[in-house]
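Recall that a protein's primary structure is simply its ordered list of amino acids. Everything else, from secondary elements to tertiary packing, is in principle encoded there. The following example makes that idea concrete.
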Amino acid sequence: MIIVAITGASGVVYGVRLLEVLKEMDIDTTLLVTRPAEIILKYEMGITEEALDKLVNRNYDPKDLTTDINSGSCRFKSMVIIPCTMKTIAAIANGYTNNAVTRAADVTLKEKRKLILVPRETPLRPVHLENMLEIAREGGIILPAMPGFYHQPEKIDDLVDFMVGKILDSLKIDNHLFKRWQE
């Protein structure tokens, strides 16, 4: 199982596309969508959280700290927070588990599982960098939403697929979402 959390940063298209690809690959997914992310989903994509239900195996309320993913005994494989707000990064870096997103991320790190954070904020303050560095030191992967251009993208979907492909690469999931670098 892969946990996918969508938090309230711009760039929710990355999270939605990741869910679509994981569904196509028949990979078991659990979804968490924060309340601010619901607003961004509607604003940027014109969709509701309920529209994402068909893409996942289960969808938990991020306020519910009693779900199985909040326990180290739950055998999920990895977690991706996409996009990941600086507030969420700060909470994870400092062990502040105030909701199911930050608690599941805390469990992911303490159990030495794969945690991928996809920040979309720019520019970055020193405290943002320090928080990301702290998470990286604990084994988390910081994968900023910074698409490459060597694959000569022709449309926005090509840029989104590049990022989703890089996330899948980090999860060790074979994919062909973008043209890889060739000399």
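The mean pLDDT is 96. Residues 156-170 form the longest helix (15 residues).
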